[in-house]
């Protein structure tokens, strides 16, 4: 497989990138605007959500609801995922891509729901432009999978993903309360307590000689309920907010959380830029319902607003198949299930 990492290391793009990696933006799209404002996504103190006083917890729940409604993104501090776990996860993830291609080849060319998949771009079979990104995707829950190498990767992956699920579960309780529902509503309705679907995605963005021409990932929204993102300290994530792109510079030791299409509280467009100086690594865990679960608008919310549902019910598995088999293009996948 001809990956971006291999392309960079071969020296074939020392001064310029191949034409198939040149990303053309739409000049009529307001998403080309870049904000110079000091605006940034809200910050949520996770410890106050789980261990604060009733008043503190109520305030945090209100803040989560506001962040979901206005941004669809927020940073989480004091989340309880140990720094040693996060650091080791970063190290092990990067080490996976430092193996030879022969060592990784068993995971290449796999299908969407194969346990482990290693590849490049988004979906080279349908991509109009290739993206400056290599990836590792692992289905880690309800059935845990992990690459055999590098040594120790499986153990730290399992620990990090377990902690990530715990954070997601508590955040979903807060989101349920912010919507005026029972705390356990989302977890119970979506069958998350025992059989939630969790997908780990490690993104590798090697340094690019013409970063202004390439794109790590184009504007898109995520499938599922929540995505929890950890980065290696390099900027690249941008969120579309109020007609402009806002660069996210996470606080030290924080995690970035965004709302997915299946929450649709406000699933927001975001994109990944590349840089010319260093390799950026981001580790995302996507949290969704069981693959066979049919997701429909919450009847309680539809009745409260006294309006018909905006989306038809669809199995989570079918939605993933729809998204992954099409070019990554904004929120176009969500429009396919709009009534």
Automatic annotation (TrEMBL):
Keyword tags: Cytoplasm, Iron, Metal-binding, Nucleus, Oxidoreductase
Principal localisation: cytoplasm
PROSITE patterns on file: FE2OG_OXY
Domain Fe2OG dioxygenase stretches: 195-289
TM spans (from-to): none
Localization in the cell: Cytoplasm; Nucleus
Pfam family, one: 2OG-FeII_Oxy
Gene Ontology molecular functions: metal ion binding; oxidoreductase activity
The keyword Metal-binding appears for this protein: yes
Keyword S-adenosyl-L-methionine annotated: no
GO cellular-component term (any): nucleus
InterPro entries according to UniProt: DIOX_N, IPNS-like_FE2OG_OXY, IPNS-like_sf, Oxoglu/Fe-dep_dioxygenase_dom, Plant_2OG-oxidoreductases
Functional note: Involved in the regulation of shoot development and salicylic acid (SA) homeostasis.
Family recorded in the similarity comment: Belongs to the iron/ascorbate-dependent oxidoreductase family.
Protein name as it appears in the record: Fe2OG dioxygenase domain-containing protein
Annotated source species: Acer yangbiense
């Amino acid at each position: 497989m001809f990956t971006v990492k291999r392309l960079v290391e071969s020296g074939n793009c020392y001064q310029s990138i191949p034409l198939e990696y040149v990303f053309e933006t739409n000049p009529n799209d307001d998403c080309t605007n870049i904000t110079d404002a000091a605006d940034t996504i809200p910050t949520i103190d996770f410890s106050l959500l789980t261990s604060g006083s009733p008043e503190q917890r109520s305030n945090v729940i209100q803040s989560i609801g506001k962040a979901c409604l206005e941004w669809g993104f927020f940073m989480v501090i004091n989340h309880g995922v140990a720094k040693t776990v996060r650091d080791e996860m970063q190290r092990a993830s990067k080490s996976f891509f430092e193996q030879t291609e022969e060592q990784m080849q068993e995971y290449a060319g796999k299908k969407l729901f194969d346990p482990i998949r290693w590849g490049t771009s988004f979906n080279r079979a349908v991509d109009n432009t290739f993206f400056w990104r290599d990836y590792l995707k692992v289905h880690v829950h309800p059935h845990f999978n992990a690459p055999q190498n590098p040594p120790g990767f499986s153990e730290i992956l399992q620990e990090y993903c377990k902690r990530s699920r715990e954070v997601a579960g508590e955040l979903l309780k807060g989101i349920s309360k912010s919507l005026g529902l029972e705390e356990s509503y989302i977890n119970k309705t979506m069958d998350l307590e025992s059989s939630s679907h969790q997908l780990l995605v490690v993104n590798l963005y090697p340094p690019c000689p013409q970063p202004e021409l390439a794109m790590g990932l184009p504007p898109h929204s995520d499938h599922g309920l929540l995505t929890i993102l950890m980065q290696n300290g390099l900027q690249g994530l941008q969120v579309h907010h109020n007609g402009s792109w806002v660069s996210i510079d996470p606080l030290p030791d924080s995690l970035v959380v965004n709302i997915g299409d299946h929450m649709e509280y406000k699933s927001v467009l975001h994109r990944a830029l590349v840089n010319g100086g260093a390799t950026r690594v981001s580790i995302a865990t996507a949290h969704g319902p069981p693959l066979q679960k049919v997701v429909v608008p919450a009847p309680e919310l539809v009745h409260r607003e006294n309006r018909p549902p905006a989306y038809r019910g669809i199995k989570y598995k079918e939605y993933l198949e729809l998204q992954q088999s099409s070019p990554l293009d904004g929120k176009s996948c969500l429009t396919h299930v709009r009534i």
